[in-house]
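Thread: ATPase AAA, structure

OP (GT): Posting the sequence first so everyone is looking at the same thing. Length is 472 residues per the record. Can we get the structure tokens written out before standup tomorrow? I want them in the notebook alongside the other entries.
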Amino acid sequence: MGGDDTKICTLTDGEETSVVLPSAQVVATLPHNVTREARLTMDLMVVGTGPECDLIVPDARVSRRHCELKLTRRGVVLRDLGSKNGTFIGEIPVMEAILPVGAVATIGSTRLSIALEGAPSLVRLSTSERFGEAIGRSVVMRALFAQLERAAATSETILLLGESGTGKEVLARAIHAASPRRDGPLVIFDCSAVAPSLVEAELFGHTRGAFTGAVAPHAGLLEQADGGTLFIDELGELPLDLQPKLLRALEARQIRRVGSSEWRSFDARVIAATHRDLRARVAEGTFRQDLYYRLAVVEVRVPALRERKDDIPALVERFLAAQSPPRALSDLPPNVMDVLLSHDWPGNVRELRNMVSRLVIFPDLAREALGVALAPSRVEAARPARGAEASAAERAEGPAAGTAEGGLSALLQMQLHEARDAVVEHFERRYIAAKLREHGGNVSRTADAIGVSRQLVYRLIERYGLRGAERA
């Protein structure tokens, strides 16, 4: 990149205790020169027509969640989110690219550009690459650790937002361990794992005879967490009729067991987490605004693994060391890290951990799959030095060269996606078939061994047509 681009490439990692965050604005210019702006931070910015988006663009040709922008040390990364009409830089459709200052991206009938306004700010980084069992040497994770280190020392409620598999429970455990309540209990409640009719009794407790099966009085989880921390996972699944009761309990620090008229005091810190977009749910009326604000005293977003790929080698080393017997990177097939770094990891850290286990258990299958991914026709697509990120800047320097380079970049991206799909499907089919044979075709035992639900195993059986001898 050249010119003003260097001004926004100021995020660096290493020994720094803070980074300079440029004051960058994303400007959306709609027809008739109507503009909308939003400040770009280290968090993802989602652009689209949906009310949950960070930058809402009222354009009929723009998808609900059209694209996302992210400020990184390489610059502002623009990524299409599978939109219906696509994302373009010039005439070239892009899946992911650097959007330099002065360049224009087009979504629907709207133009997106980056503007630098005002003085930059400092973002504090943790001096550690660990927070409890969570590890991260990337800038975005060290910034997250710094936030949580400060928040852990207080008794404030914390809301962790992030996709499934990003490690929100790991962070909740780390917060508890770093807090003044570390000697108290850590109680974990998953709203999605309990029938809605039983959530109230689980949280607040019940008296004997309060309902069928209540043969003895039972203290709820808020009482059990007294003196410690209650981690409420998948908060977005909390039934709407229970939300005002939880709000009252948090405000008054008192609960009333189901079937009782007696109020009981409790002293527990609450950490909540969800993969749902709570702001969108508030807008839809499916989540109470007052409860959201009560829980979001400290609100942090846990980045997806695709946003912190610098952490993948360290995570792989961690997962390998946890194997029995412990393994090292040298035990994996050659070039495996190229493939791991090229994948977007929709299942995040959980998916990466499971993949490492598969690579250890079935190294021969891994080598065969890697052969597909790194075939000569696809090698260039796996190289990060060129592609959409480089071509975005080069297109800004010259139309003719930009068009040729951009077309090549788009082709390579398509090949990379095809290679990823081929690797995943090839490996997944062989892996699930082998595990089914290992457990005599028993779906329940296979699911337990892999660590997934039976429903997922059934879907994979159906997807890959695993029948008869392949399952036994």
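GT: Both are above now. Quick notes for whoever picks this up: The chain has a mean pLDDT of 82. The two ends are 56 Å apart (CA to CA).
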